[in-house]
């Protein structure tokens, strides 16, 4: 699949919608998808007709995390997450499916996230021998510390109601578009200057985490992904078997 087919663009009444469309790998973060999403976000950030950006998906998975066959390098992923945080327009995640591992970093970088009640979430990194390193940059400043310790360490799956409780998503409901409606109506009524300045106010702590920790976390990610345990974990995942350490 060519890179030009991985992220679709649409615009209506001040809202630009970017749709991840890589069903073959469950919208995993491949080098190509990250590159195209980065380009689409940059265009939206320069467009005066854009009041907000909605990030959504085709298929039953919003994003399965890093594409283990073609992962972006950690610096590139940091750049994408920071781009979402720094974009002058609010970025709203629309989730009507499952989110795993690095896909949760996209949610953390977004200003607002809405999820359907049937959506599920999991930080699965520990199960393949790595850690949620780079994606912690937008997540740790925003999530409940006790909850994130549990889900980071166990890799357990949790539902949309729990995701809302711990701060991963803003609102959850049976119909994600119904839940998102008041949010988009509010954004359309806000002035561009008001939105941009308020977003800067809200993202100070997140950007402080990027400035302080990005270098060390990218190094940690690179080290772990090159380790023998990670190789075993990723091989087991691709072969659909348990890794050697499972008791």
Features:
17% strand; 2-enoyl-CoA Hydratase, Chain A, domain 1; 247 residues; six-stranded mixed beta sheet; four-stranded mixed beta sheet; 10 helices; single chain
Q: What's the CATH topology label of the domain at 3-174?
A: 2-enoyl-CoA Hydratase, Chain A, domain 1
Could you state the CATH homologous superfamily of the domain at 3-174?
2-enoyl-CoA Hydratase, Chain A, domain 1
> How far from one another are the termini?
39 Å
Number of strands: 10
Largest beta-sheet characterization: 6 strands, mixed
SSE order, one letter for each helix or strand: EEHEEHEEHEEHHEHEHHHH
Describe the 3D structure.
The protein is of the alpha/beta class and 247 residues long. The protein has a domain at 3-174: Alpha-Beta Complex (2-enoyl-CoA Hydratase, Chain A, domain 1). The chain has ten helices and ten strands. The strands form two sheets. The protein has a six-stranded mixed beta sheet, sandwiched between helices. Strands 4-6-8-9 form a four-stranded mixed beta sheet. The radius of gyration is 17 Å and the shape is globular.
Task: Explain briefly what this protein structure is.
This protein has helices spanning 31-45, 74-86, 102-109, 136-139, 145-154, 160-166, 176-189, 192-202, 204-225, 228-239, and strands spanning 7-12, 15-20, 52-57, 61-63, 91-95, 98-100, 112-116, 120-122, 157-159, 171-173. With 247 residues, the chain is of the alpha/beta class.
How are the SSEs placed, and which strands pair?
Blueprint: E1 7-12, E2 15-20, H1 31-45, E3 52-57, E4 61-63, H2 74-86, E5 91-95, E6 98-100, H3 102-109, E7 112-116, E8 120-122, H4 136-139, H5 145-154, E9 157-159, H6 160-166, E10 171-173, H7 176-189, H8 192-202, H9 204-225, H10 228-239
